[in-house]
């Protein structure tokens, strides 16, 4: 017996709404003039310096430097991600996300893990270990502590922002 073939099509307005809403992307140039914005740029520049100073050596022979590399690269990438979110004001388009809490958790974890990584980095640098890489490792240790202090500052600003949101 012959079958009847019925094709039902539906259309969605999702793609039309998506293309209309994403065409106007905001850009907050003033964010880079704030102290949290300047700290974020400093974290990116000096964080890049931390992991490139280590990456240019035979760090893979020493597990401690592998940990420092992981922390430095991981938070470098995430900091770039958050800078883009703040510069493009994406946080205003996704109000379901508690951005003050996310920022506090991100900066707080970055501060704690970077502090541990900086201490590990500094305690692993010895001339006896590998004198060829000594200067790079010593410089990466110094910059890791500077980046740690930047994340501490941003943690403070995130806490102030989070607290003002939770008190309302």
From TrEMBL:
It comes from the Eukaryota. This is CKLF8 protein. InterPro entries: MAL (IPR013295), Marvel (IPR008253), MARVEL-CKLF_proteins (IPR050578). One of its GO terms (cellular component) is membrane. One of its GO terms (biological process) is myelination. Keywords: Membrane, Transmembrane, Transmembrane helix. GO terms for molecular function: structural constituent of myelin sheath. It is a multi-pass membrane protein. The chain crosses the membrane at residues 35-54, 60-85, 97-117, 137-159. The keyword Lyase does not apply. The keyword Membrane applies. It is found in: Membrane. Residues 31-163 form the MARVEL domain. Its main location: membrane.
